[in-house]
Amino acid sequence: MTGGAIQWYPGHMARAMRRLADDLRIIDLVIEVIDVRVPASGANPALDKIAAHKSRLRVLTRDDLADPLLTEGWLERFRKRGSTVAFAAKEPSGPARLRAAVTAAAAGLRSARAIVLGIPNAGKSTVINALAGRKVARTEDRAGVTRAAQWFRLGPDLEVMDTAGILAPKIETPEAQWRLALVGAVPRARFDPEEVVARFYGWAQSAAAANAVPDLETFAQSRGFIRRGNLLDVHNASWAYIKEFNEGRFGRMTLEEPQP
Ligand SMILES: Nc1nc2c(ncn2[C@@H]2O[C@H](COP(=O)(O)OP(=O)(O)O)[C@@H](O)[C@H]2O)c(=O)[nH]1
Ligand SMILES: [Mg+2]
After folding, report:
1. Distances (CA, A) of 157 to 54, 128, 242
2. Less CB within 10 Å around the terminal CB: N or C of the chain?
């Protein structure tokens, strides 16, 4: 991945952040959704600046797909900076725990208005639906929140916007690039899936040696990605590989460790 590929539309990101900062004037509580498999690259540090004076709750999603020990480590680390809760969409007690965490985070505020924010595919709609107890999450406005803001009530004095705000992921290194691509935060047209799989496999050899992570050729063979002439269709296999990773088929993995 070239250096150029890392800086995808920085101008757009700057504009979106300015608009979000503007929108945040009517918000008291920021619920930041972070994919717990990429807790470092999956958070946009610009939010720390524009939401510096807001109450903040971090929701670490996809706990069911992550390494439980590393989730503990990340929780401990994030909690030094504010309220943080781990969340797995399918966990039966998840929605109730999430609602309790949001209510607690808003406890000191009078008539709080909350918004759910996060990078693409972080789990924002899932979090909104869990909070609302029904399907409410509509198409998001990439640049912020003001377009026809609608709210649902979470408590007598607590409202949550029914539309999430999208943060552009900040891709600072080639490592962040493949990790964000792998977890679905980068548009498909903007990366080469074979390269992402190769980099992930290289990482897994040392960092996730206990997991049964196949190399792309073995995977392609075992899943029958064979073209005429008995050639392997590694391109289509690489998309299937990424999909299976995100279904947890290679085991629970966290791509980034908290630094001591
Ligand atoms: N396994 C698992 N999948 C999740 C979880 N949260 C969200 N997803 C899935 O991830 C995908 C993206 O979630 P979504 O809420 O639409 O993300 P958004 O783009 O941030 O709104 C969907 O297919 C969800 O079902 C979770 O905790 N565990
Ligand atoms: Mg969504």
Report:
1. 17, 17, 42
2. C
Task: Read off the tokens for 19.
Answer: 């608009």
Fold entry, domain 3-166: Rossmann fold (3.40.50)
Question: 109 is written with which tokens?
Answer: 């505020």
Whether 148 has a pLDDT exceeding 70, the answer reads no
> What letter does residue 151 receive in the DSSP assignment?
E
What are the Cα distances from residue 109, in Å, to 27, 80, 120, 159?
A: 11, 21, 29, 12
Confidence of residue 257 (pLDDT cuts 50, 70, 90): very high
Asked if 245 contacts 252 with a C-beta cutoff of 8 angstroms, the reply is no
In eight-state DSSP terms, residue 64 is G
Residue boundaries of the structural domains of the chain: 3-166, 192-246
Q: Mind listing the pLDDT tens digit for each residue in 90-122?
A: 999 999 999 999 999 999 888 899 999 999 999
Pocket (CB within 6 angstroms of ligand 1): 61-62, 64-65, 87-89, 118, 120-126, 164
pLDDT per residue as tens digits for the range 21-70: 888 999 999 999 999 999 999 998 889 999 999 999 999 999 999 999 99
Q: How confident is the model at residue 138 (pLDDT cuts 50, 70, 90)?
A: low
Ligand 1 atom with the shortest distance to the CA of 246: 1
Pocket test for ligand 1, best of 37, 126, 128 (most atoms within 8 A of CB): 126
Atom of ligand 1 nearest to the CA of 61: 27
